[in-house]
Structure formats: C-alpha cells, structure tokens
# Entry
Amino acid sequence: MQRLYLQFYVTILVVLAVFVGAAVLLWRLADDDNRTPQYLDVAAELTGALLPDSNAPRPEQQRAIEALQRKLRFDIALYEPDGDMIAMAGKPPPRFEPSRARTGWRRGPGGPNFVLQLPDGRWLVARQVRERPNPIYWIAAALALVAIAVAVGSFPVVRGLGRRLERLKTGVDRLGHGDLGARVKVEGRDEVAALAASFNRSAQRIEELVAAHRLLLANASHELRTPLTRISVAASLLGDAADPRTRESLKRDVAELDQLIEQILLASRLEALPTLERHEPIDLLALAAEEASHYDVEVSGEPVTVNGDRTLLRRLVRNLVENAQRYGTGKDGDDSVAVSVTRESDCAVLEVTDRGPGVPEAERQRIFEPFYRMAGSAESGRGSGLGLALVLDIARRHGGDAVCLAAEGGGSRFRVDLPTG
# Structure
C-alpha cells in the first residue's frame, strides 16, 4: 500500500528537482548565447590600441603580450587571423581553431577562456589564472538550498496530514470490525477535520440505532415469555379429555418458541459484548460428555483443556448435538450421532458426526448464517435457525472456528477448532 503522505512529499521533491534543473539549464543557455554584446567591441578596440600593429616584429608583440599578462594576471596568447600563434605569456593556452572561434567567454578544460578578435583580424585568447567559481554553481547551490529548505519544511506538514488520514482509516476499520464505540480525534479546521467530524457523527448514529435495535429485540423476547408461560400452563390443564396429539404438538411448539427466544437473547448479548465475560480452564472432553449425556450420545477422545466461558461452550456442544439429532437421520433410519474430542497441534478439535443426507458443498458455509434454511429442511425437522450461527459465533469468540464437512460413509461432520489453554 502506498502511503498518501509519501505521494504528496515525493511530488513536492519532483517539482523542486524540475525547477532547479530548469533554472540551471536556462542559465547555461543564457551563458552560451552567441550574440556579442557591445562592450566586447569596445574591448577589442582598446586592446588593439594597446598592442603593436599586426606588421610589427614578433619580439615587440611578445613584449607587449608579456606586459599585458603582468597587469591582468591572465595567461594570454595572440594569434594571426589564420590561427598561427604570434606571442604567448603564461601557461600554454588550449588549442585554438579560428574557424570555430567566437568572441566572448567560454568554458574550457583549464578554466574559462576569453576570446577577443581585434579590429585587424588578430585573435587574443586570455585564460584566467586564478579560477573563480562559476556563477552557475553558486546559483545551483542556492537553488539546492532552497529545495532542501522546502523539503525539510514541508515534510512535517505532509506527514501530519498523512497521520490524520491514517487515524481516520483506523477508526473506520474499527467500526467495520464491530467496535461501535470507535471515534477519531478531530484535528484542525480543514476538509480532513470535517471528514473526521462527519465520521464521528455517523458512528454515533449507527451505535444509537444498533443499541435501540438490541433493546427492542431483548424487550420483545422478554415480553414473549409471559404469554408463552400462560400457553404452557393452559396446555398442561387441558387434561385427558384433550386430543393427545394436539396437546403434544402444542407443547413442542411452546418449547421450540421458548428455545428460539433463549437463542435470540443469547445472540443479542453476544453482539453487545466485544470479548468473553469469563475465562477459565475447561476440560472439553468432560464438558462434551456431560452435555451429550442429556441426549444419550456417547463421547470419545482424549482430555483437552481450553480457556473460555463454560456456559457458552456448553451451548456450543448442545446446539451441535441437537442439530445432528434433528437433521441427521439417514434413509435407512440410522440416527446415530458420534461426538469426539481430540488434540491436533495446539488446538482442541470437537467433531459431531451424523448419518443424515449431508449438506451440499455449496451450502456448507451458508448454514452458519442466522435463520438460513436449506431447501427441503423444513420437512426433516423443526428448528430456530440460530443454532449453528451461535456455534460459529461462540467458536470465533474463543479464537477458533467452525466448519461443516462431509462425513465418511455419508452424513455431515461439524468440526470446531479451539486453541488449547
């Protein structure tokens, strides 16, 4: 993932680099301008007046060049119009080619050279003895310092903006993972601060709506208990005169509805709690055997200790066994349920296997969704549709997971992995 503040910062650095490069290039182009300023013509006239005529003897021209070199402290050479050297004072100048010579300052390997064509056609080449720093370097250094100052000064600003966006992203992630109390600090008065304030308002509204929904669900579930109790009492008072089938059907409906309310309340309570309320060491094999004994189901395996909430793990085992008994009857009438507890690496593995028709592979994940029913499941049994959803929720709250697999020989195998204590 590319950091936003780094993108801003790199953009600033690239713009500064382009600016410095363009400034240096323009200076170089201006320095290499072919136009001859008027003052060079004046310098050529004055120099021609100081030097002997072109037809003067060469020793006389040599002495004049030496005198000029002592005054100016330049390496000086005088050439004929055809490039033949007439006189020289100081270090030998670079190779001179009159066909390529131009009046003005030029950069050379030994330093800047000053080339001047005299009125009589002769060429005077002077090279500075003490090299002075090229002005272009001073300008480039000044621009570089400006670029460094801008880079250093802009980094805290850009990094601060990036940190604020990162904190906002963290708050969004927390809210997305179910932490409805997630809020971000509002910093500054710009668009990012307005976005943070808008996020806080939205998160507050979502938290209020979810809290109201949970309260309504809990109250409704609680209020349903009273008429259910009255119906149950009325069913028991029907006496022997009532139809036994009707009485038993009514009792099953009441029991199923009571179980649904209990599971809804448990699901609502789990949603309201970010972590487990209790942590204690639990022998998973003993817990599974104790719970499965209520359904005449035997448990095999080895003792494995896990840390968690005993009540929730008991509910997990109960829901798996009830689900297996409700939907696990095979075509041959085999309704046996097998429960086992084993250890694999650092995990405790609880498996509940039935001999039912099995779950199609495409629906093995969806059956853990609340109130999801497979096609035709209503004909094979009755249930609330929350049992397996609670199994998955409880397993994940203990740091584990729950999956549905195909059993050998037909049927379904529900596997729950829990980290050992």
Notes: The radius of gyration is 47 Å. Residues 378-382 have pLDDT under 50 and may be disordered.
